[in-house]
Inverse folding.
């Protein structure tokens, strides 16, 4: 059985940046198989990198992801692990993007002989606003239940469409 970690990341004090945290919270309320662990990482990216040293086959990062579509649009992005030579993000414990976490994990694995997850997926949601303030905007709040279903499909081996516009259902 493969081990999977679903990690909700983001800052709940920056509006829609709290998407990943809220989605992880809702997903954790649902019954998951024993090999799937759902965690609210929030802004603790260094903690996530160290937790991944415990050995996971798959990592699903859930985060606000600005790509220029309508707020509430969901994305599934497969991270291929490639980076240009010398393209290592600066490590800043207060601003850990998914790329920074994965770069730190690569460094930690090299030092410990550990293995990074074989598959890394990012389930992202187009934010309306990441300005200071608590609470998700209506389109991002509406996207949370769709994101939960999308992640469950991914965990069951489904391959939903890459971008899910607001009002669209996840499909395999």
């Amino acid at each position: 059985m493969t081990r999977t970690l679903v990690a909700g990341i983001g800052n709940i004090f920056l509006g829609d940046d709290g998407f990943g945290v809220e989605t992880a919270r809702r997903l954790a309320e649902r019954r998951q198989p024993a090999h799937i662990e759902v965690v609210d990482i929030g802004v603790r990216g260094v903690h996530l990198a160290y937790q991944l040293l415990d050995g996971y086959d798959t990592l699903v990062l859930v985060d606000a992801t600005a790509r220029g579509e309508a707020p509430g649009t969901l994305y599934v992005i497969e991270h291929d692990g490639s980076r240009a030579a010398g393209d290592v993000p600066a490590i800043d414990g207060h601003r850990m993007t998914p790329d920074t976490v994965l770069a730190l994990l690569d460094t930690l694995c090299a030092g410990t002989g550990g293995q990074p997850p074989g598959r890394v997926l990012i389930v992202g949601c187009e934010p309306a606003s990441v300005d200071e303030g608590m609470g998700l905007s209506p389109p991002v709040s509406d996207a949370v239940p769709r994101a939960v279903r999308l992640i469950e499909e991914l965990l069951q081996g489904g391959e939903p469409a890459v971008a899910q516009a607001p009002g669209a259902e996840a499909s395999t």
In short: The radius of gyration is 15 Å. Helices lie at 19-28, 45-52, 98-112, 138-155. Residues 89-94 have pLDDT under 50 and may be disordered.
